[in-house]
Amino acid sequence: MRSSNPVFSRRGFSRDNGYAGFNTAPQAGAPAAGANPYAQGTAANPYATNPYAQPDAQYGGAPQAPTRTGAMTIDDVVTRTAITLGTVVLGAAAAWWLLPVDEANLGKSYGIAIGAALVAFVLSLIQSFKRKPVPALIVSYAAFEGVFLGVISSAVSTYIGPGVVMQAVMGTMCVFAGVLFAYKMRWIRVTRRFYGFVMAAAMGFMLLMMVNLLFSVFGGGDGLGFRSGGLGILFGVIGIILGACFLALDFKQVEDGIAFGAPREESWLAAFGLTMTLVWIYLEMLRLLSILSGDD
User: How far apart are CA 71 and CA 159, in angstroms?
Assistant: First the structure.
């Protein structure tokens, strides 16, 4: 599956590794859409006898993973995701302690946080346009993203409420666990229609946020009001729901990558996508809880 993230676009598992997902336009010499290229009976393909050649029937169930040396496993994905998320947490903790948000240091801390966010954005774009995952880029992205989250979280804890950050963390964990359970129970069916709907909704959401940002920069205040009050609460809920939908796309991507024997290095790409989605959910959860706390 070629999945995307509502914050940053990213590549799916590389096509030459047999993992094309929704982007299934036939190419010259390529197998038919949905077919497992490891089942091709050619001399160049050592996996011609792979018994798991058939894809899941219209997402009705995942095929079994092929027995291929060096293929990605769920343990690889969990390990790499733990590394990236651990780096985010360490970066956030360092920023929390080293970049105070009191009146004397607020401007400096905010400046460093914005700079870190821009660096993280650039690193994510570089990785998104590369054919192969680069662990150094992904871990660096996680570190800079952590610095940004640490300053923002510290500011929320200081000026809004000390319990809001922990509530946002717990809320993000609950969304992750809930979507994972629903996906495993097949209550969520990731289809082409689901993918198209999520992408269209995410594009519309991001466009509205950009327009709101422009109005707030040039007009002052909260722009169109999408970041506070009733509209802010509504858009916060929508943002969290979109993040949950992208988690389902991420889970499908991982499931299909394992099923079709994506190389082990692709587990870094899965960890990259999951980390970005969880960061998105956390930020939307933090903003929503901040608005609710401010209304109390």
Answer: 48
Contacts of 293 (CB under 8 A, 6+ apart): 160, 161, 164
Q: Which two tokens stand for residue 49?
A: 């006898």
* CB of 66 closer than 8 Å to CB of 38: yes
**Residue 242 structure tokens:** 């979109």
Question: What is the average pLDDT across 163-183?
Answer: 96
pLDDT at site 265: 92
Rounded distance, CA 205 to CA 214, Å? 14
235-273 pLDDT tens trace: 899 999 999 999 999 999 999 999 998 999 999 999 999
Measured between alpha carbons, how far is residue 31 from residues 24, 46, 58, 98 in Å?
10, 16, 17, 54
For residue 288 the two structure tokens come to 């929503």
Helices and strands of the chain, counted as H and E runs: 7, 0
Backbone angles phi, psi at 263, to 5 degrees: -60, 155
| Tokens matching residue 16 | 């030459």
Secondary structure class of 263 (helix, strand, coil):
strand
CB 89 within 8 A of CB 147: no
pLDDT digits (tens, 9 = 90+) for 27-71: 333 344 444 433 434 444 433 333 333 344 334 444 554 445 588
